[in-house]
Structure formats: structure tokens, C-alpha cells
């Protein structure tokens, strides 16, 4: 039995993203897909005393057909600016001091040229903090088939998967019948029912970067993921 998930990379994603990683045996970063503006690839939200704040990495989109892994950073100082905003907002969080040096080092070393590399840099490090040991692969390691559903099926077959755990957004297009015919079970990630945790600046907000959970709950952060239960 082997379960996999396939998602595009996000910048410092919310806890649900890490929960789906922690729910599978192997996880594929699917950055051969088209880059979309105003999405989660290069931005995410944190909590501040003035409300939710977007942290966006400036990137260059030269073509509508540009892939995520072809998307380059345009401002080399973005990491300094983001870290400054995070430090100001979370300075009083219970576990900020315990993680400050680790996250500051992550940001100062985030000097890669592409958004895919930046996202992988943070995803790998945060998985380690949350004790997620899932194998993470890159879609560039595989020969990709044509067709949305066919391509996902081929990736599952290449990885000898018996179950494909999909994000709920794919319900609009995924052809489950071809998975069934290939002997692969399709499951859908359920992002509902998360418990609230200690969080600065009420009211509580689930849909922020996972760094909010880590700074507020520390080593206990992993226990707020369903996959760790």
C-alpha cells in the first residue's frame, strides 16, 4: 500500500498543505504547471496587530504559458523585507524566541533565483520542524503525460501508488474513472475541523501561513495536524 499526493508549490503554506504532505508516503511538487498571478505560489498571509497582511515575493511573468519552475524573482531583497515583517508581528508569540534564529537563517539563505527553489527551501525546513518525514519529489524527475487527469495518473503509476490523495479543488476536473480502471483509489483531502490554537491578534484565523502555528505553539504545533493524530 502506498499513498501519494501531488500539489503545486506554495510560499510558506498554511497548515493544511503540510497536513496533506504528512498524510502520504511520497509527495510530488507539481511545478511543471502554469504560473498563475495572485495565487499562493509566491505569497501568503500572516497575522499582525493591524489585521491580516500579505507577504508577496516579487516575480517576473514573461508569458501566460510560463511554468511555476520557470518563474524568477525580481527583487533580491525580498527576503530581508519579509523577515522584518515576520519578526515585528510575531515578536511576542510564545515560541518566537525558540525559532527566531532558525527562521532568520532560512530567510537570509533564501537567495535562489526561482520561486520553485524558494518554496522548496521553506517546505523542506518546515517539514523537519513538524517532524514530517514524507519523501518529497519534483515533477521534473518524471516524463509527464498529456492531459490533466492522465498526467496525474501517470505520476501515480510511476510511483507505484495504490491511493492518490487529492486536494478538493481537483474535483472540478479529475477523471476518477481512469484511476479506478488502473486500480488506484482516489481519496479527497478534508481541510475542515481543525482545532483552534493559541493565536495573537483575535479573531482566530485558520488560513494563514503555518509559521503562525509554529511561533504560537512551538513543538506542539505538529499536534494540530490531522496527519499526526
Tell me about this structure:
InterPro entries: WbqC. Helix content is 32%, strand content 16%. It is an alpha/beta fold and 229 residues long. The protein has one domain (3-228).
Q: Total number of β-strand segments?
A: 9
Main beta-sheet annotation: 5 strands, parallel
Low-confidence stretches: none
Spatial gap, N to C terminus: 20 Å
Number of helices, where a helix is a run of at least 4 consecutive DSSP H or I residues: 7
Please state the CA-atom Rg, rounded to the nearest Å. Answer: 18 Å
InterPro entries: WbqC
Pfam family, one: WbqC
Protein name: WbqC-like protein
List the helices and strands and how they pair.
Elements: E1 3-7, H1 15-22, E2 26-29, E3 43-48, E4 51-56, E5 59-60, E6 72-73, H2 78-90, H3 96-108, H4 115-129, E7 135-138, H5 148-158, E8 163-166, H6 176-181, E9 185-188, H7 210-217
Parallel strand pairs: 1-2, 1-8, 2-7, 8-9
Antiparallel strand pairs: 3-4, 5-6
Organism: Sulfurospirillum halorespirans DSM 13726
Pfam families: WbqC
Protein name: WbqC-like protein
List keywords for this structure.
5-stranded parallel β-sheet, 7 helices, alpha/beta, globular, 9 strands, 229 residues, two-stranded antiparallel sheet, 16% strand
